[in-house]
Amino acid sequence: KKHTDSPLDMVALHLKIVGGDHLDSEELVRDTLKSGDECYLMDSSAPQPPKRVATGSLAAASGGGYASSSPAPPAPAAAKPSKPAKEADGRPRCKRFGCNRYYDEGTEQQCQFHKSPPIFHETAKWWSCCPDKKAYDWEEFIRIPGCQTGICSATPE
Known about the structure:
Region (Disordered): 40-93
Strand order of the largest sheet: 2-1-3
CATH topology of the domain at 90-156: btk motif of tyrosine-protein kinase itk
GO molecular function, one term: metal ion binding
Organism: Strombidinopsis acuminata
Domain CHORD: 94-157
Radius of gyration: 27 Å
Order of helices and strands: EEHEHEEEEHE
InterPro entries: CHORD_dom (IPR007051), CHRD1 (IPR039790)
CATH architecture of the domain at 90-156: Irregular
């Protein structure tokens, strides 16, 4: 009732599933959308990626599941394992929760750490493995001793 002078042009609009594909006017919403899916009503002038027709092994066998005649997009490059962060003098930093000390590579240095990540809620800070030891100041939080002992490691948990 608000905009009777400018009605929507159904031919110029389409749906796009959030985190998914664009729907053509030929597709049925009930066949494509699942319960709880969110979608946008978009103008046809918005750029659309190539249409996906299938997923799984059939899609891989037919060239990646794209309906266009162009070749499938290149596969993303494999993520290279990152090297441990090192200090200026070349020593790696321990990645265990709450340790963060630099240690000499090749030697086993004892560290005291937390087995679970920190929680920051409003002004309170605590380690999820030690819920009874809360701090309200950063310096106080950093001083909470670890609940586990082990050897420093450059591999993140």
